[in-house]
Design goal:
six-stranded mixed sheet; disordered C terminus; Integrase catalytic domain-containing protein; GAG-pre-integrase_dom; Integrase_cat-core
Length: 1462
């Protein structure tokens, strides 16, 4: 791809390849951060992704773009978009990153950040304008002060949006120049206003200039003055930085002695001289100090009178009065003090007068330095510590005091308590997280592993110091000094460490002291002039300083140079890699290893990686294809055994990078146990494993050439790299003196006679050996390489799409079948129809299903061949999707639209023929009902219904019924009570022939506002189980009973309400007997409920209690298996009633008994006779000659319409068989409610669709945090439903009354919990009535245990069904045959002895043994291919899936077969 293309990604681009120095923390730095991001993104040509100018490619490609090109472009766009998103997230704070983590588009993230943090121009301008006059230098350097001012000016300029001028006249140009000059003067005044008072003279001089200088020129003048001050006051600055006492800022001279570097109240003339001073004895003989005895002295007199001692006096004064936040170590301060004494002794004045008292004073100063030593060496770097620990709780931030004090174990066997946990912010800017406060410690320990992980840095240790360097920006974060064998962190700001002070810290305090005399340095006074000029020249290197033509440097002695710590901080770079000249002298002395992958397209054997092993001596290369990177350890073990057995050599050293499969896990332990040295590269330095890296490049170059030449599909890349390795081992190389690796290793010249052109057309003998004299003896193939363990050629059969090895081959090396369509004509005299390539409609790539595997039995090498492939050298065959001819009729891509005249008619939905389900056996009434159900819609709110007269009449009828029933009475709301709300629901009711019976409006109370104990007590009311519904329908179909349906009008209104409940007036209600009006009532009255209403929490319980009492009074008995089932038996007649709230299903052997029950119910309640059962709880029931057909077609079509997949191509399987769902794969969904809604509807669809039961239970496990992968699986399932939306179950009419159960389990199928999946199905005759797919609650130790648990769950369901069927008049069903495909589980169920394999299984699982013993269950073995329960435990092949569903009783229409994707 062209590098100028915005979709181009450079190999070096990654999440950390766009370093932004300043992270976004809020509105205060948003504009500067945005500018830095725009600059960085423009350098990467990715600015359009945040501005929205590079949109996502459309789903439907626009001609002339092909679907393949559009798919590639979409993938590139998503890669670049994710890369830009990672750059943005890495440049913002952690809290902001969490808030934008789930936004998919980078442009949306950019817009959201702009909305959140961009302040209004008015408020921001005011703040910036105010800062221009408030910023002060306050002791900072001129450069830092000017930088702060410049940032404010630049941001203020960016907000001044002036109109663009089309034409510029001379007058306009002069005006703009004057405005610019005025703005420049304003900035000059602002800059000079914030300077410190010490630059007052320079400020006055600059303001007297005419014209006024620019801000840049003024800054340069001030910087020159600043540098001169540093030169002429450098000695004093150095001495002041060593002070231990606080310094009060003084201005002017001392009024007592005349010197200006101390205030009068601290003058030694007033407070007395120190014991080591030469005037100390003189002051002892005098009385108390009186200021009148002394007169102010000038600096000149003081200097003249004191002579050489004046320098020492001035120095000592600054030692006691100087101020600095930085202190020396005890050793450095001792050196400094010894220098003071030596200077006194060598000065020729009073140095010889030093007494023991003076030395004791110096010792006291040293003790004070040691007491404050923690200011410099506060943290000790510890590479073995797991956490940061400190005894100083005052320096911790965001502390958390622990109630239970844990303990930390010490190396001496003792333990110390941890009192707090918090954060510590060091002066150098590093923030230490989760710091443990251990008061008993004497020092603070800094955990190097935790520090490098939290701050994304690396610690580099040198003999005398260490450096902390950021991995992304290469910036030095901190420095450490080695003291007494330990590395101490310099806890000071990196930008404020003075260069000269660093020299003192790193080396030693210089022998002499810096002093100033008349502003001129001399070599005797300042011996380290080399460091001074090194700092003046911007840390110029020593070699460049020698070449400078400067008189001032002619007398500088470079021998006094000391190590500069600023230079590595500013100039530290990666060291160059020298060419390695090392070469082993024996084979297998050293191995170089590296892994490659994963590649986006797996091979035919599902390989995505390969491991490369290179022998250092012979350069022989071995390559092993792998499915997962974790296989590298086992491959290495196999290779070491191979080397030991075949060559009798022992590997001594293995070199690799820091890949996790090598440095962690069992690999390092295995190599250590074998005594093999494992050498790894440094972090982020793959060049140290250069031989393996270069070998990878060579292999891929040859492999690409082989593939391009043969035009092979990408899935054959595994054969390309293995063949490339085979050839490279036979290439001569200059590194081996033009010998081949094959010759170096096996000591013989390779044979090139068997080489053929890779990917060419070949004809081999027919491997199928069909005993047909007229069958072809040869098959067309493609040459794919050289197998390692067989003397033959690896071939790909173009007819059966399988791989095999043969030695009887004829090659046509100028023909390439995948690039030239004439090849098929060459080897096919009689054209054989090849499978048509199917278009991929899936939302994610599917992995081809293996068909056969090629196994090799010879474990030895053929003629000592060098193995170049993995243990399974030949890959499985691929699916039959290969195009064989390009001369195919082109299919139009134009979308077909219905004629315009059909817009006024109701016509069938235009969709693929595969989605149509023909039902020639259905009645015309049922067809009419389905047509009405698919086209009818009901109002969703009161506003939609009140404008239609038919719905107003329905609401009036509902209100009249409630008033006649005495449901409420209007009253005032009592004090302390709260009225709950209500709303309307609308539904169209149909007759059995599909015609509209009536429009029904129902008033529902907002029961969610009720409070337990005040408005209600108990709420539970039983409803019919769906297994009971199917069982009753199956029995009715088997017995040939009539089934009718009845509905109770206002069922909940019949329940008597005992609690005191108040309700607001309904919408449209204006008074008793008044029609509904579209007005809002202004009445303050409420309704006190006397009877139940729909929506009340206690309404279902009150209604069911009244209905059950009525049925029991009619002579019915309540079933103990399902309390919603009522049965009645009189003589030979049998009647059953199934209740689901207010819907009743009635069936029985005597129609007169059914009619009598109808009359009894109608006399007690307001009932509606809906006729024969056709539509019950969303189930569509159809009578046919073969039995009852139950489906949910309308429900399915509504679900597919909601999901928007009606125009998609269907799938043949409910889920991709190669997909393994996990919780942490994919990006989280922005709206997980959509996923949960789909799963809830799919769960209800499993009532009549056992084929999706396993997939739905698998997807329902991720409802808490669904991801995009889970949503793709849901869409896959929906498109499977599109295959046959009218599919259902057939409850057979001619069926025997016996139960048959099937149970199965998929052992450890869950990749996250390793729990097994249980599946079972139970058939009544040939009718499926109960099935389930569920993950087991515990982990099974074996497949037999998992199968045994599945048998236990199935036995429980069978026991319950026996009780239910007994109530329905079906008796004497046992023994129940229980089919299981695991003989071990069957033996455990039949064996009453507890042994090692079953003693850990719960007692409740052994319920199976009791059932077998009692003769209720009879376990039988069934072959896996005949196990119906396999549908509920795993995804099968297409043929097996359809076969088992047909046996299960799932009904397929003759014309409902689909052509879809797996």
């Amino acid at each position: 791809m062209d590098p100028s293309n915005p979709l181009y990604v450079h190999p070096s681009d990654g999440p950390g390849s766009l370093p932004i120095q300043e992270k976004l923390i809020g509105a205060q730095n948003y504009r500067s951060w945005r500018r830095a991001m725009e600059i960085g993104l423009s350098t990467k040509r990715k600015l359009g992704f945040v501005r929205g100018t590079i949109p996502r490619p459309p789903i439907v490609p626009v001609p002339p773009t092909t679907p393949a090109e559009n798919a590639v472009r979409t993938e590139l766009w998503e890669t670049c978009n994710n890369l830009v998103t990672s750059w943005i997230m890495s440049s913002v704070s952690d809290s902001i990153a969490k808030s934008i983590m789930f936004i998919e588009s980078a442009s949306e993230i950019w817009i959201q950040l702009e909305t959140r943090f961009s302040l209004s121009n008015g408020s921001r301008k005011y703040k910036l304008s105010k800062e221009c006059f408030e910023i002060q230098q306050q002791g900072s350097t001129v450069s830092e002060y000017y930088t702060r001012m410049k940032c404010v000016w630049e941001e203020l300029d960016s907000m001044l949006m002036l109109p663009r001028l089309v034409t510029i006249t001379p007058e306009i140009s002069n005006f703009l120049s004057a405005v610019e000059k005025q703005k420049e003067e304003q900035r000059l005044f602002q800059f000079l206003n914030g300077l410190d008072d010490c630059y007052g003279a320079q400020r006055s001089q600059l303001l007297l200039l005419n014209p006024l200088p620019s801000v840049e020129n003024a800054c340069a003048v001030i910087q020159q003055e600043e540098s001169q001050k540093d030169v002429f006051k450098g000695g004093v600055t150095i001495v002041e930085s060593t002070a231990l006492f606080s310094k009060q800022e003084t201005k002017g001279k001392c009024s007592i002695c005349g010197y200006k570097w101390h205030p009068p109240d601290k003058c030694w003339e007033k407070v007395g001289y120190p014991v080591w001073h030469h005037k100390h004895k003189q002051s002892q003989g005098q009385n108390k100090f009186s200021q009148s005895q002394y007169k102010p002295k000038s600096s000149n007199n003081g200097g003249a009178n004191n002579g050489g001692g004046s320098t020492f006096k001035r120095t000592a004064a600054n030692v006691t009065s100087g101020a600095s936040s930085f202190t020396f170590t005890s050793e450095q301060f001792e050196t400094l003090m010894r220098g003071v004494l030596n200077d006194m002794k060598n000065s020729g004045t009073s140095g010889a007068d030093c007494t023991d008292d003076e030395l004791e004073f110096v010792a006291g100063m040293l003790c004070l330095s040691a007491a404050t030593n923690h200011a410099l060496y506060y943290w000790i770097l510890d590479t073995g510590a797991t956490d940061h620990m400190t005894p100083h709780s005052k320096s911790m931030l965001s502390t958390k005091i622990l109630k239970i004090l844990p303990k930390i174990n010490l190396p001496n066997g003792q333990s110390s308590e941890i009192t707090q946990i918090g954060q510590v912010k060091l002066n150098n800017g590093i923030v230490l997280k989760d710091v443990l406060c251990v008061p008993s410690f004497q020092f603070s320990l800094l955990s190097v592993p935790k520090l490098t992980k939290d701050n994304n840095c690396v610690a580099i240790f040198f003999p005398n110091f260490c450096v902390l360097q950021d991995l992304a920006t290469r910036k030095v974060l901190g420095l450490g000094k080695k003291v007494a064998g330990l590395y101490h962190l310099l806890n000071v700001p990196m930008d404020s460490v003075d260069a000269k002070l660093r020299n003192l810290v790193d080396c030693h305090v210089n022998k002499g002291l810096f002093s100033c005399s008349a502003g001129v340095y001399s070599k005797s006074v300042c011996p380290n002039m080399f460091s001074l000029w090194h700092h003046r020249l911007g840390h110029l290197s020593v070699s460049r300083m020698k070449n400078l033509q400067c008189n001032e440097l002619s007398s500088v002695d470079e021998s006094n140079d000391t190590t500069c710590l600023t230079c590595p901080m500013a100039k530290l770079t990666k060291l160059p890699f020298s060419r390695s000249e090392s070469h082993c002298t024996t084979a297998f002395h050293m191995l170089h290893m590296d892994t490659w992958g994963p590649y986006k397209v797996p091979t035919n054997g599902k390989y995505r990686y390969f491991l490369t092993i290179v022998d250092d001596y012979s350069r022989a290369t071995w390559i092993y294809l792998m499915v997962h990177k974790s296989e590298a350890v086992e491959v290495l073990k196999f290779f070491l055994k191979f080397v030991d057995r075949q060559f009798g050599a022992k590997v001594k050293c293995v070199r690799s990078d820091n890949a996790l499969e090598f440095v962690k896990g069992p690999c390092s332990v295995f190599l250590a146990n074998q005594g093999i040295e494992h050498q790894t590269t440094c972090v982020d330095r793959p060049q140290q494993n250069g031989r393996a890296e270069r070998k990878h490049r060579h292999i891929l170059e040859v492999a690409r050439a082989l593939r391009f030449q043969a035009s092979l599909p990408l899935r054959f890349w595994g054969d390309c790299v293995t063949t490339a390795t085979y050839l490279i081992n036979r290439f001569p190389t200059p590194l081996l003196k033009n010998k081949t690796p094959y010759e170096m290793l096996l000591k013989k010249t390779p044979d090139y006679s068997q080489l053929r052109v890779f990917g060419c057309f070949a004809v081999a003998t027919n491997p199928s050996r069909v005993p047909d004299k007229f069958a072809p003896k040869g098959v067309p193939c493609v040459f794919l390489g050289y197998p390692a363990h067989q003397k033959g050629y690896k071939l790909y059969n173009l007819i059966t799409h399988t791989c095999f090895v043969s030695r009887d081959v004829q090659f046509h090396e100028h023909i390439f079948p995948f690039s030239d369509s004439s090849a098929t004509k060459f080897f096919q005299p009689n054209p054989v129809p090849m499978p048509k390539p199917s278009t991929v409609y899936d939302d994610y790539p599917t992995i081809p299903t293996p068909v056969t595997n090629l196994h090799t039995d010879d474990p030895h090498l053929a003629q000592h061949e060098i193995p170049v492939q993995s243990v399974t050298q030949t890959e499985p065959a691929v699916n039959n999707n290969e195009p064989t001819s390009t001369n195919q009729t082109r299919k139009s891509t134009r979308q077909s639209k219905p004629p315009t005249w059909t817009k006024d008619f109701i016509v069938p939905t235009i969709k693929p023929v595969a989605n149509q389900v023909t039902s020639p056996v259905l009645s015309s009434q049922f067809h009419c009902m389905l047509s009405v159900l698919e086209t009818q819609t009901d109002p969703k709110s009161f506003k939609e219904a009140v404008v239609k007269p038919e719905w107003c009449n329905a609401m009036n009828g509902e209100l009249r019924a409630l008033e006649d029933n005495g449901t409420w009475e209007e009253t005032e709301l009592p004090p302390g009570k709260k009225a709950i709300g209500c709303h309307w629901l609308f539904k169209t009711k149909y007759k059995s022939d599909g015609t509209v019976e009536r429009k029904k409006a129902r008033l529902v109370v907002q029961g969610n506002r009720q409070k337990k104990g005040e408005d209600y007590e108990e709420t539970f009311a039983p409803v019919a189980k769906m297994v009971t519904v199917r069982s009753l329908l199956a029995v009715a179909a088997m017995q040939g009973w009539d089934i009718v349906q009845m509905d109770v009008s206002n069922a909940f209104l019949h329940g008597d309400l005992i609690e005191e409940v108040y309700m607001q007036l309904p919408l449209g209600y204006v008074g008793k007997g008044e029609p509904v009006q579209n007005v809002k009532s202004n009445s303050n009255k409420v309704c006190r409920l006397k009877k139940s209403l729909y929506g009340l929490k206690q309404a279902p319980r009150q209604w069911f209690a009244k209905l059950s009492s009525a049925l029991l009074s009619f002579g019915f008995q309540q079933s103990k298996a399902d309390y919603s089932l009522f049965t009645k038996k009189e003589g030979t007649s049998f009647t059953a009633v199934l209740v689901y709230v207010d819907d009743l299903m009635i069936t029985g052997s005597d129609s007169s008994q059914i009619q009598m029950l109808k009359d009894q119910l109608s006399s007690t309640f307001h009932m509606k006779d809906l006729g024969d059962l056709h539509y019950f709880l969303g189930l569509e029931v159809t009578k046919a000659e073969s039995g009852l057909f139950v489906s949910q077609k309308k429900y399915t079509l509504e679900l597919l319409q909601e999901a928007g997949v009606m125009s998609s191509k269907p799938y043949k399987l409910p889920m991709d068989p190669n997909l393994k769902l996990q919780a942490d794969v994919g990006s989280p969904l922005q709206d997980p409610e959509v996923y949960r809604r789909y799963i809830g509807k799919l769960i209800y669809l499993t009532i009549t669709r056992p084929d999706i039961c396993y997939t739905v239970q698998l997807l329902s496990q991720f409802m808490q945090n669904p991801t995009s992968v889970h949503m793709q699986a849901v869409k896959h399932l929906l498109r499977y439903l599109l295959n046959a939306p009218g599919q259902g179950i057939l409850l057979a009419h001619h069926s025997k009354a016996h139960l048959t159960a099937y149970c199965d389990s998929d052992w450890a199928s869950c990749p996250m919990t390793r729990r097994s999946t249980t599946g079972y199905c139970i058939l009544l005759g040939e009718s499926p009535i109960s099935w389930k797919s569920k993950k087991q609650g515990v982990v099974s130790r074996s497949s037999a245990e998992a199968e045994y648990r599945a048998m236990a769950i199935t036995c429980c369901e069978v026991t319950w069904l026996l009780s239910l069927l007994k109530d329905l008049g079906i008796k004497d069903l046992h023994p129940i045959t229980l089919h299981c495909d695991n003989q071990a589980a069957i033996h455990i169920a039949a064996n009453p002895v507890f042994h090692d394999r079953t003693k850990h299984i719960e007692v409740d699982c052994h319920y199976v043994r009791d059932q077998v013993k009692d003769g209720i269950i009879k376990p039988e073995y069934i072959h896996t291919s005949q196990q119906l329960a396999d549908v509920f435990t795993k995804i099968l092949t297409v043929d097996q899936h359809h076969t088992l569903l047909h046996k299960l009783g799932v009904s397929f229409s003759e014309n409902s077969q689909l052509e879809g994707e797996c």
